Amino acid sequence: MARMLNKVAVITGAASGIGLACVRRFAAEGAQVVGLDLGEPPAEALQGLDPAPLFLRLNVTDEAQTQAVMAEVIARFGRIDALVTAAGIASQGSVTQTDTANWQRMLDIHLNGCMFACKYALPQMVAQRSGSIITFGSIFGLQGCDGNVAYNVAKGGITQLTRSMAIDYGHANVRVNGLCPGLIDTPMTTMVKEHAEFHAYFASQHMLSRAGQPEEVANVALFLASDEASFVSGQMLAVDGGFSAG
Ligand code: NAD
Q: Where are the transmembrane segments (predicted)?
C-alpha cells in the first residue's frame, strides 16, 4: 500500500535537488504534495505523478507570504501531514571573509525560512493532533567545515530549532526530525562537481567513497514523514554515507 495515501505534504525548496526528489518520492507514495519555491521545476520532472503536485511561489524569508501560503494550503486541502523544509543556498567564507549582508542572508534563508514555515504549519498539525516535520541540517552543521561559517552556523541552528520544536510539540503527536546530508550531487553542489579532483577527494571522505544522490535523501525523508517512523522524534539523522561517523 502507498505509504503517504491521503496525506498532504508541504515541501519548501521543492523546485530543485533534494526538495524536488522529495516531491517526486512523496507523490509516488500517494501524497498530495504542495511544492513551495521561488520558481518551478521543469514540467517533465512532475510528469505522471498522481496526485499531481501543486506548486506555489514562496520566498521562505518572507514571513507574511509564508503565513498566507500555509493558510492557502489548509483552505484547499484541509490538513498538513508532513512539512519538509529543504529551501537553502550555499555560501563560502570564514568570519573575516563574510560580509554582514551574506551572513544575514544565510540566517534568513536557512533559519528564519525554516522557522516561519514551521510556525505557520504547526497550529494545523497541533489541531489535527498529528504531523511530521523534516528540517534540513548538514554534516557541516554537526561538525563544521573550514571557510563556511555562515552556512555552518545556520545549519547548527537548525539542529537546535529541530530539537526545540520536537520538545514543544511532541505532546500533540507532532514529530520533528532533521536530516544532515553529506555531499549530495544537486544543483547546489555543481560548483564542487566542476572541480573533479576536489569532488573525488570530498567523496572519498564518505565511508561509501562516493557522493549521494538526492533520491537517497528523499527516501529517508519519506520514512520520517510516514507512519513507519511513528516513534521517532527529536533526531538529526545523518544521510552521509558514513561521513560523520568516521
Ligand atoms: P538546490 O540548490 O538543488 O535546491 C534548493 C532549492 O531551494 C532551490 O530550488 C531554490 O530555488 C530554493 N530556495 C533557495 N532560496 C529560497 C528562498 N528564499 N525561498 C524559497 N526557495 C528557495 O539544493 P539542495 O542540494 O537540494 O539542498 C536542499 C537542502 O539540503 C538545503 O537546505 C541544503 O543546505 C541542504 N544540504 C544539501 C547538501 C548537498 O550536498 N546538496 C548537503 C547538506 C545539506
A: none
